[in-house]
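G., the chain you wanted modeled:
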Amino acid sequence: MDLFLPNSGIPFSGFLSDFLNSKTMDLALEGKIDVNVVAAVGKLSLSGLLLNAAQELEGMNGFSNNVTVLGFTLPRNDPVHLGIVIELATKFVNPSLAAMKVGTTTLDVFYEGEKMGQITAKDMDLLSGVNFVNFTGLVSPPPSSLKTAGFLFTRYFSGQDSVIEARGVSTESNIGWLRETVKDLRIETVLPGLKNYTFARLRPQTLNISFSEEHDPWIDGFFAVDIILPFTFEYSVKEVSMVAEVYYLGAPFALLSMDTVPCTFSNGTIHFNFTSMERRTKRGN
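Predicted structure as tokens:
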């Protein structure tokens, strides 16, 4: 069976865009059909029979709730393009019966409406059912979006899930209607937070405790903090602030609170001076 696409496939591009983003859609066939019937009397040719059929198709629904981020790594910096290389493993579930050979496809990634970077999948095929798709790309938010990027990574390291959106940019296809269809692609998925992960370890180097009748004990000292990132790209730390509770025998007895201060950083370790640890419960309570 041949499929002819008039007007360079532009009307078909609209159909395909709706098919990608709709849960269901109605497809109708109208025309004429010729049938050869073999009966006891021999072969009968029936020509020009009217064809009029309608069918509800299950679309891809924008892959709503059907894209899962299985994991990602940030292996290195890209000094040429001023970003961090990202490698992303995903699972796409295509709920429709249709299979689509999309080819090498590029998507922009957004969080809270701000662009975080761009990813590309080579030779992307979307078969009916489960598809495993690997992306590579660059985390490269513009300067105006660095605060939002920091918030996203804060949520990630805090174990909180975040909703991100991928928007179609291009595909390396010579088919004009397919290139236009990819641009209409909008995919929302959840970036899972890093669960049960210890981001830093605090190691006191010196500790001084002062007592006074007028106020609660005052503690200062010199601390080292080991920063442990699950990525291998190079980074540096210039400033640090901290709020933490101090526990003894399973119960908090003091609050560590420090405003932003300069620090030194080498081999994954931050060093900084720290003052002011206040008791959690005031004297006499």
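The two ends are 86 Å apart (CA to CA).

Shout if anything looks off.
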